[in-house]
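Subgroup meeting minutes
Present: P.N., E.W., G.H.
Scribe: E.W.

1. P.N. recapped why we're keeping a running log of single-chain structure predictions: easier to compare across weeks, and new members can see raw inputs and outputs side by side.
2. G.H. added today's entry (241 aa).
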Amino acid sequence: MSTKWKVVELDVCESTFNVARKEQPWTIVCADRQLKGRGRFNRSWFGEHGGLWATYNLPLAPNSGRHWGLLPLVAGVAIIKALAPYKIKGLRLRWPNDVLVGRDKLAGILVERPSSGMASIGIGINVFNDVDSIAAVTTDHPTRLNDLLYTCPSVSKLRGIIADALAETFQIFVDKGLEALHDDLVAAWGTSLPVVAITDTERHTGHFIGVEADGSPILSRADGTRITIPGITVNRLKELI
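Output recorded in log:
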């Protein structure tokens, strides 16, 4: 792992976000157990022993023109890149912040901005933790890395692999924008799937075919037309499979 990262390791905490917000950029806060982890829309995230529960702090330049709200997509690309050497069949992204294997959830991403100069990227990956015990109470059926690989990396090694991939992908985003990651995003989505995009007032159905430069999802509809749904209005992009 690059020496630019400082690592804060905890046995247990309520949320790595709560600790990370008091740290500086290029700090990783990780915990063996997370008691009150959270996902998008304050959904609970189970953080038991054996998983990677970490928050990665990244610097934000206020005048860079890069919107921190796109960082879930940047982090998703980084995770896919980090795991690519393991050749996991069915590994893919689901807009905007989930990493799946087929239809099973391997990892989740949540981004917060504790200050104008820093973004905190929370990443939770099922590695060795007991996923059978949470399968009945999660929205998506969980899977874990240890069941997908003949030789699974340790949690600490995985943390470092993710850190280096995140630093590299983040720098591309800062230097060139999300457009420079377009091909990686297209590859990460996998097969185009039928979805429904749910906002506070509408439901849009079609095939998810990618994102605009601002990260908003693009759907191809049955009549052959395309529609872009502003990403900030989408509560959930639900796959109809």
